[in-house]
Amino acid sequence: MNPIDSPAWRALAAHAEAIRPLHLRDLFATDPQRFEHFSLHHDGLLLDYSKQRVSAETMALLRAYAETADVAGWRRRMLNGESINHTEGRAVRHMSLRAGDQAPAEVRAALARQQAFCESIHNGVWRGFFGERITDVVNIGIGGSDLGPRMAALALSARQQPDIAVHFIANVDSADIAPLLASLNPRTTLFIVASKTFTTLETLTNARTARDWLLATAGQNSAIARHFVAISTNLELTKQFGIADDNVFEFWDWVGGRFSIWSAIGLSLALAIGWKNFEQLLAGARAMDRHFIDTPADENLPLTLALLSLWNTNFLGASTEAMLPYSQSLHLFPAYLQQLEMESNGKQIDRDGKPLNIATSPVIWGESGTNGQHSFYQLFHQGGHLIPADFVALREADFPLPGHHASLLANCLAQSAALAFGQTAEEVRAAGIPEALIPYKVFPGNQPSNTLLLPSLDPYTLGQLLALFEHKVFCLGVLWNLNAFDQWGVELGKQLAGQLTPLIEGNGDLSAFDSSTRGLIAALKG
Ligand code: F6P
Questions:
Q1: How far is the CA of 99 from the centre of ligand 1 (A)?
Q2: Substitution candidate for ligand 1 out of 198, 203, 251, 490 with most atoms within 8 A of CB
Q3: Which residues belong to the active site?
Q4: Whose CA is nearest to atom 16 of ligand 1?
């Protein structure tokens, strides 16, 4: 039986009727220790979920539903290496990439190769075709082969290694790669072509452009071996591209693209922050894995995040979830989460191939604080949409300067409080505001949020954070009874783009296409 047809789900639906009319003001008023009752501490992290529209009963019912959906059983199946990605016949083993001494031999061997490569670039043993040191590394990849290392390199930029700059190219739009190439020297540039499948149009187009650019200076194909490495599961295609097997860092089909930062896909990140820091990232994720596996439901951070998301989405009716990091260094974290959450759980077909008929992944979006406050928070406060949010803040600034961090933190706390409690007409009136303006100054509040406090933004903590959200996504997939590890929904657009490219470049029969596509192609051709 689909768990959403279970009594546990129906009990939640009935309970939601009782909770929905309650305001967060009421929930705080009736429990002076609400913060203590609805917050979790673990290994330096603090999750305050007291500003969620939940009671102790809500949490108990949610945890009962997690048992019905068998989160623990699916976690065990994942850990046992069963093919839980059933539509692709694959296991889901990204946790073994960061298992340290417990990692499989093939993983430890791959990590040792990556470390040696990384160090050879940093200490100048690896040289370009003309004998010069590598000063610039360009990661060419997209989606999971780009977003993780790109986001993490920015998040950890306080640890940027000297004498090397790491760049990221993803878009097939030449406006991405052209300005970068114009600023680089081919003699001192190394390209990492990162593609699990090595069939991705954007990545291969950019990689060919980069190869032509290199060869225009080097003049000989033998230069490719000093300036191109690949990260892929497809050795056949990397060879066809001209990259020698010795320059390919392999990974495995049991690593999903959006879960691949821990694999060789993290090489660009390791080059940016140094191998020791990369190992710390793995250590942080490993610690979160242990927490996720060993900790009972009522203290389990990833499961709690997942249950709150389920509650907001399916029982309170939210269709979006905002990620609001009060950290400029986490500026790309919302973009990274968009792929992690939406490509995993944005689905309507259950594990048995049947329609789900319930909302699944909310639309994930966000912006770093305080910038978002000066753009979209107006709607957040008074736009009438229910928008659950995750605030993320750092106890210690990663780039400390006098006068900044307290202000940043104050804004974070102020916003979550204003969103939760709002401002009533009586309060506005008591402040002496003229009667005609009072309706404009009322804030309804009751916007639910989590606040996640991190001690600092070091590699270990970032590893914890990323693994926390990976496991949240896993739990949600189970709670919605879907396969979080395939992504068939990206295929149709790719196929159509493949058919349309030659038609835009040349002439061909457009009659199979709709009138809008035909009209747009005609307009493009002038
Ligand atoms: O189109 C979606 C996707 O398949 C993602 O899942 C993946 O991370 C991305 O494309 C890139 O794929 P690849 O690493 O094979 O180039």
A1: 24
A2: 490
A3: 343, 374, 494
A4: 195
b/e map of 153-184 (b: 16 or more CB within 10 Å)?
A: bbbbeebebeebebbbbbebeeeebeebbeeb
* 192, 151 Cβ separation under 8 angstroms: no
SS3 of 106-151: the string is HHHHHHHHHHHHHHHHHCCCCECCCCCECCEEEEECCHHHCHHHHH
Q: Smallest Cα–Cα separation from 358: which of 312, 313, 307?
A: 313
Percent of the chain having pLDDT more than 70? Answer: 100
Q: Is 261 in the pocket of ligand 1 (CB under 6 A)?
A: no
Burial 345-355 (b: 16+ CB within 10 A, else e): bbbeebbeeee
Expressed in angstroms and rounded, the spacing between residue 142 Cα and the centre of ligand 1 is 6
Helices marked H in 156-274 — which ranges?
174-183, 201-218, 224-227, 235-241, 267-273
Provide the pLDDT for residue 498.
93
Q: Which two tokens stand for residue 270?
A: 């390791």
pLDDT at 2 over 90: no
Question: Does the beta carbon of 85 lie inside 6 Å of ligand 1?
Answer: no
Does ligand 1 come within 6 angstroms of the Cβ of 206?
no
Q: Residue 489 CA to chain centroid, in angstroms?
A: 18
Task: Extract the tokens encoding 241.
Answer: 């591209």
Strands 45-48 and 363-366 come out as: unpaired
End-to-end CA distance of the chain: 56
pLDDT of 10:
97
d(CA 490, CA 379): 31
**pLDDT of 526:** 85
Tokens of 382: 């008074």
Residue nearest atom 3 of ligand 1, based on CA coordinates: 143
Q: Provide the sign of the torsion angle of the four alpha carbons 275, 239, 210, 339, taken in this order.
A: negative
Which of 87, 487, 494 for mutating ligand 1's site (highest number of atoms within 8 Å of CB)? 487
Residue type, 443: F
Rounded to the nearest whole angstrom, what is the distance from the C-alpha of residue 259 to the centroid of ligand 1?
A: 11
Q: Is 114 in the pocket of ligand 1 (CB under 6 A)?
A: no
State the distance from the centre of ligand 1 to the C-alpha of 256, rounded, in angstroms: 9
The pLDDT tens digits of the residues spanning 76-101 come to 999 999 999 999 999 999 999 999 99
Distances (CA, A) of 375 to 308, 330, 332, 366, 367: 26, 18, 17, 11, 10
Q: Which of 94, 140, 198, 200 has most ligand 1 atoms within 8 Å of CB, for mutation?
A: 200
Q: Which two tokens stand for residue 223?
A: 């230069």
